[in-house]
Every structure is written in structure tokens, then in C-alpha cells.
Structure to design on (157 residues):
């Protein structure tokens, strides 16, 4: 998985600018993800890539469009030192895995990484290093494994 690095306080307006909020379609949103801060992102991101960020990723407006755009872009996980609380819940509810880990200074954008959610470990294949993190609670992992809250609820019927 390729990594994309972003710093502190990446807000939802940076993830998906407000003028593109005319749809809820993940693929259409993905075409404009990070349009104003990393215009190359939507063209270069690949299925399975990972975002690595510093503090307070997803701050700002409480819109589900932001994690939906990342899912549409193929991002399989966001790793950050911390997340804005509403972004964290929105992401889990729509099926975007998040990992809280203070690894921003240890992972470079050129590094290939793997994330093992069950074991709570990020493997940096480039540097041959491992970084531990606290796995999500079992219920939250079940939501993610189901594809989010709505698919989880549908499976319960």
C-alpha cells in the first residue's frame, strides 16, 4: 500500500471542498478529493493506498462526504495521531477503517506499509519496521467488517 502524508488539522473542507458536495456518490466525490491542497491526489491514488497524518485529522464540518470521498478514492485506511471525533464516528459508520497511531515522523510518503487490524500492527515494508497500535473495540471492528453501520444492521435482520 502506498502512503499519502498529510500534516496536522486536515479539515473536511480540504478532504472534499464544499463546492463538490452536490452528490453523495463516493466515486464522484473521490474525483475532487484534496482538490485544493493535493490536486494530483485524485489522479494518482490507487485502490488500497493509505493516508498517514498527524494530529486532528478530519476536523471541521461534520459531513459524511469526507470519509465517503476517501472510500471512493480507494483509500483502505487512515492512520493518524488523532482524529476529530465526528470524523472518526462518521468514518466507522460508513466503513472507512481508522487507526490511531503516532507514526507520522516514522513513515515516509514513499514507504509501502501494511496494516494488520486484528494484531494492532503497522508493518513498514520499506524500512522493515513495525509500529503497534491499539486495535478498535470488537463492536467497531464488526461494523467495519460489515462495511459500515447500515450493512451491519441489515445483517442483523
Amino acid at each position: 500500500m502506498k502512503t499519502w502524508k498529510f500534516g496536522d488539522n486536515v479539515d473536511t473542507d480540504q478532504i472534499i471542498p464544499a463546492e463538490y458536495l452536490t452528490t453523495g456518490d463516493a466515486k464522484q466525490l473521490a474525483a475532487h478529493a484534496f482538490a485544493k491542497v493535493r490536486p494530483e491526489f485524485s489522479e494518482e491514488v490507487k485502490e488500497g493506498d493509505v493516508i498517514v497524518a498527524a494530529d486532528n485529522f478530519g476536523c471541521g464540518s461534520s459531513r459524511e462526504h469526507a470519509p465517503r470521498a476517501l472510500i471512493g478514492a480507494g483509500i483502505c485506511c487512515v492512520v493518524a495521531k488523532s482524529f476529530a471525533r465526528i470524523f472518526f464516528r462518521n468514518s466507522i459508520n460508513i466503513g472507512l477503517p481508522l487507526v490511531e497511531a503516532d507514526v507520522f515522523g516514522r513513515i515516509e510518503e514513499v514507504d509501502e506499509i501494511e496494516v494488520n487490524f486484528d494484531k494492532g500492527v503497522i508493518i513498514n515494508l520499506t524500512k522493515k519496521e513495525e509500529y503497534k497500535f491499539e486495535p478498535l473495540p470488537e463492536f467497531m471492528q464488526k461494523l467495519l467488517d460489515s462495511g459500515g453501520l447500515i450493512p451491519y444492521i441489515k445483517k442483523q435482520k
About this structure: The mean pLDDT is 95.
